[in-house]
Amino acid sequence: MSDTIRVLVEEEKIDARIRELGEQISRDYAGREVHMICILKGGVFFMCELAKRISVPVSMDFMQVSSYGGGTKSSGIVKIIKDLDESIEDKHVLIVEDIIDSGRTLSYLIPVLQQRRPAQIRLCTLLDKPERREVSNVTVDYTGFVIPNEFVVGYGLDYDQRYRNLPYIGVVEPGSSGQEE
Ligand code: IMP
Ligand code: MG
Predict the structure, then answer these.
(1) What CATH number is given to the structural domain containing 21?
(2) Is residue 177 part of a domain?
(3) Residue 97 CA: which ligand 1 atom is closest?
């Protein structure tokens, strides 16, 4: 099956933006250690590239939640599939997400993490689709790119588990996907 993918954000642009974010985060966390929490699976490509651009000490942990079924629409239900390995007490937590869409995932997750008494929680996302927001209590501290209301793939983002490995952000052209062979 060969889908047509329209490039929305080129690889070079993503690299340059991640470099900027890394520099900004390094300045903001000067004298502290950043405890990066990657939201699996989508956040993993972004987190690895971002971590390499941060010059203050970094530690990492991973968490997997599900708010979506196989398709492209939010179920509104958030479930922790894999919890963190380590305590976040007194740590400066930076949540690293692939995309903030409805905001429901983080709207659920941030209060759960707050209860574990971190020193601070900040949120960093590669992509933001503000038009789609359904909650008002999610504040993004670091954003790679604000994008229009289109379903995107690549750089960790999937459509039914495919396309995560694309080195750019793209849109699956309507009519070219969705049919299982
Ligand atoms: P939210 O809870 O609606 O903000 O959704 C967050 C999660 O939905 C992201 O971490 C993605 O896994 C998924 N998601 C939202 N929009 C897209 C998209 O355009 N492409 C791929 N996955 C998406
Ligand atoms: Mg997903």
Answers:
(1) 3.40.50.2020
(2) no
(3) 10
| 67 domain residue, yes or no | yes
Nearest alpha carbon, ligand 1 atom 5: 101
Residue 40 within any structural domain of the chain: yes
> With a threshold of 0.70, does the pTM exceed it?
yes
Q: Is the pLDDT of residue 1 over 90?
A: no
pLDDT at 149 (0 to 100): 95
Nearest Cα neighbor of 107 from 82, 74, 84 is 74
Atom number in ligand 1 closest to CA 78: 2
How many structural domains comprise the chain?
Answer: 1
Decide if pLDDT at 74 tops 70: no
Contact criterion met (CB below 8 Å) for 59 and 97: no
Give the number of other CB atoms < 10 A from CB of residue 92. Answer: 19
Protein residue with its CA nearest to atom 17 in ligand 1: 151
Q: Is 76 left (phi over 0), alpha (psi -120 to 50) or beta?
A: left
Please indicate whether residue 122 or residue 68 has the higher confidence score (pLDDT).
Answer: 122
Residue 101 annotated as catalytic? yes
pLDDT value at 34 more than 80: yes
130 falls within a domain: yes
